[in-house]
Amino acid sequence: MKELIEKIAKVLVDNPDEVKVNEVVSGSTSVLELKVAKDDMGHVIGKNGRIADAIRTILRGAEKKVNRKFILDIIE
């Protein structure tokens, strides 16, 4: 999932070299920390959080396949 989130974010931002995804695993939960450039925060979050919600929807779909809970944190 880490690679998928990274690819999605790199397509959305103006500075793809600054996209970093860190995965913190705790039991059956994975927290994906997405870090982008300050100028690109709006691109990743979207108007009214729609893009961030769409990325989280993709993660929810994958949860059932891999039997793991994913949480997306967008970090500045």
Describe the structure.
With 76 residues, the protein is of the alpha+beta class. It has one domain (2-75): 2-Layer Sandwich (GMP Synthetase, Chain A, domain 3), CATH 3.30.300. Helices cover 43% and strands 28% of the residues. It is built from three helices and three strands, in the order αββααβ. Strands 1-2-3 form a three-stranded mixed β-sheet. A hairpin with a 2-residue loop joins strand 1 (20-26) and strand 2 (29-35). The longest helix is centred in the last third of the chain and has 17 residues, at 50-66. It is globular and about 35 Å long. The model has no long low-confidence stretch (mean pLDDT 94).
Labels describing this entry:
3 helices; GMP Synthetase, Chain A, domain 3; globular; alpha+beta; 76 residues; 28% strand; 3-stranded mixed beta sheet; 3 strands
Biggest sheet layout: 3 strands, mixed
How many strands in all?
3
Uncertain runs: none
Q: Classify the helix fraction into a percent range.
A: 40-55%
Q: How many H/I helices?
A: 3
Beta content comes to 25-35%
Task: Give the helices and strands as they follow along the chain.
Answer: HEEHHE
Spatially, the strands of the biggest sheet line up as: 1-2-3
- The CATH superfamily is identified as K homology (KH) domain
Mean pLDDT score, rounded? Answer: 94
Write the layout of secondary structure elements.
Blueprint lengths: L1 H11 L7 E7 L2 E7 L5 H5 L4 H17 L2 E7 L1
Parallel strand pairs: 2-3
Antiparallel strand pairs: 1-2
Short description:
This protein is of the alpha+beta class. The protein has helices at residues 2-12, 41-45, 50-66, and strands at residues 20-26, 29-35, 69-75.
